[in-house]
Amino acid sequence: MSDADTDAMTEAVAELIAILDLERLEVDLFRGQNPKTGWRRVFGGQVVSQALVAAARTVPADRPAHSLHAYFLLPGDPRVPIVYEVERLRDGQSFTTRRVKAIQNGRAIFATTVSFQIREEGFTHQPAMPDVAGPDGLPGGPELAANAQLPDTIAAYFARPRPILLRPVDWERYRNDGPRAPVFNVWLKAAADLPDDEALHQAVMAYASDMTLLDVSLIPHRRSVFDPQVQAASLDHALWFHRPFRADSWMLYAQDSPAATGARGFARGQIFDRAGNLIASVAQEGLIRPRLD
Q1: Residues 20-68: pLDDT tens digits?
Q2: What's the number of domains the chain is made of?
Q3: CATH at 16
Q4: Catalytic amino acids?
Q5: Residue 1: its pLDDT value, please?
Q6: 119-166: pLDDT as tens digits
Q7: What is the CB neighbour count within 10 angstroms for residue 92?
Q8: Domain hosting residue 128, numbered range
Q9: Mind giving me the DSSP string for the chain?
Q10: Which residues does the UniProt record annotate as the domain Acyl-CoA thioesterase-like N-terminal HotDog (predicted)?
Q11: pLDDT digits (tens, 9 = 90+) for 63-84
Q12: Cα within 13 Å of Cα(56), Cβ side
């Protein structure tokens, strides 16, 4: 990776941190800005992460988030700032619950409920991390974009500077050259070091968790969300944080899609740190409607 590529990605991380630093308008009212990307709609992961930040700003720092359940209601307009309205549902001895509504032009575009918990010890178990190649040596970013075997739309996606580094283990799936199981493994992390702020690391993971998940439900159909013959959009998103982690260290996002029906694809993911600890789980259903025109 060239110095110019590294600088561009560092700037992308700085921009992500900036858009996650919400402006407080009132006690439980916040405003988030959108990055200048030229996208036609706001990226879903951005809204999830900003809403998580808004909720966290109303909770003591010693109560990290442990789960988030969200619905995408309307496409977000990247030209308009997003207002986040936080409702305090519960302040218990162990758990704190917040509901967040994202608003543009007087209409709700997104809603989520976030639960926070004091740190506690208890029973522990987890699945083993998939036995896949590590991130070192795998192509990503401009290296992957330069692969002549990839469609132009996929190459353009990986060539663009972004705040999250992606190194797919199963990058061959993008060639769509034959039937494949709906399984996808990708290493990811923030493209530059992050401050020592647990809420920020959780928000960055929330942002990254929406980047590749829906696309897994299209793998057995030899399609992707970049296919102009597919109308794709996230419908809901659930995220569980299991233990502390750093989003600027490599994490394996192991994803699969057990079902697709009714123009909807369901996908789920497990996120492991490099040592094999399960640090988060994700589930999502999205629209994957074939375009008939």
Answers
A1: 999 999 999 999 999 877 678 899 999 999 999 999 999 999 999 999 9
A2: 1
A3: 2.40.160.210
A4: 210, 234, 284
A5: 52
A6: 999 999 999 999 999 999 898 888 888 876 788 888 888 888 889 999
A7: 10
A8: 3-290
A9: --HHHHHHHHHHHHHHHHHHSPEEEETTEEEE-------SS--HHHHHHHHHHHHHTTS-TTS-EEEEEEEE-S---TTS-EEEEEEEEEE-SSEEEEEEEEEETTEEEEEEEEEEE---------PPPP----STT---THHHHT-TTS-HHHHHHHHS--SEEEEETTGGGGG--S---SEEEEEEEESS---S-HHHHHHHHHHHTTSSTGGGGGGGGT--TT-TTEEEEEEEEEEEE-S---TTS-EEEEEEEEEEETTEEEEEEEEEETTS-EEEEEEEEEEEEEP--
A10: 41-117
A11: 999 999 999 999 999 999 999 9
A12: 25
Q: How many Å apart are CA 236 and CA 224, to the nearest integer?
A: 19
Could you report the per-residue pLDDT of 91-102, keeping only the tens digit for each?
999 999 999 999
